[in-house]
Amino acid sequence: MNIYVESNFVLELALLQEQSEACENILSICEAGKTKLVLPAFCIAEPYETLGRRAKHRSNLSRDLVAELGQLLRSEPYREEVDTLQDVTNILIRSSEEDKQRLNQALDRILSLAEVIPLERDILIAAITYQANLDLSPPDSIVYASVLHHLHATTPAKSCFLNRNSKDFDDPDIVDTLDNYKCKMLPRFDSGHNYVQSEVGSEA
């Protein structure tokens, strides 16, 4: 059974967000050899770009906060409270570096077991069409085109596509197309884990 995932799967693990435990459990099932994880190559680079934007925003916010704290230090009533606020600036700076370290660790683990779908010309051509016909964003259209390309090339007996972009991917046309390839679309990683667990159990 193939489990297709996208950039948010990587970010859940890296940022320890609310569905990270489900993603950890999915990885464990794949590491046990019961299923195969499949990841578009685009989804390796996109998380770094996302974290880069966040790091830049936090850096700017930290710089502005430091400037404001400098002004507050000049006022006697606020001097005792400034130390607490300085901790916030340290967290903003430290969190960006820690996020990047966890992203590297998550990708090391994912790439040790996942099959990566190369970003080929045919995928990019198809993605342009999906942007127009399905109103997908450029990143989502590349992910969707990559998944369909791999499904068409490998024709797995059973698969699922796990994502957190339900607003975009939970479209009747997309769901029907994936169904034609025996691929179930699941817009939450915890739902995906439950599905994968039930399917693995039924094959035991």
Structure description:
By secondary structure, this protein is an alpha/beta fold. The chain folds into two domains: 2-44 and 110-203, Rossmann fold; 50-107. Helix content is 70%, strand content 10%. It contains nine helices and five strands, in the order E-H-H-E-H-H-E-H-H-E-H-H-E-H. It has helices at 7-15, 20-31, 42-72, 79-111, 121-133, 138-154, 166-169, 172-180, 189-203, and strands at residues 2-5, 36-40, 115-117, 159-162, 183-186. It has a five-stranded parallel sheet with strand order 3-2-1-4-5. Helix 5 (121-133) crosses helix 6. The longest helix is centred in the middle third of the chain and has 33 residues, at 79-111. 30% of the residues are buried. The model has no long low-confidence stretch (mean pLDDT 88).
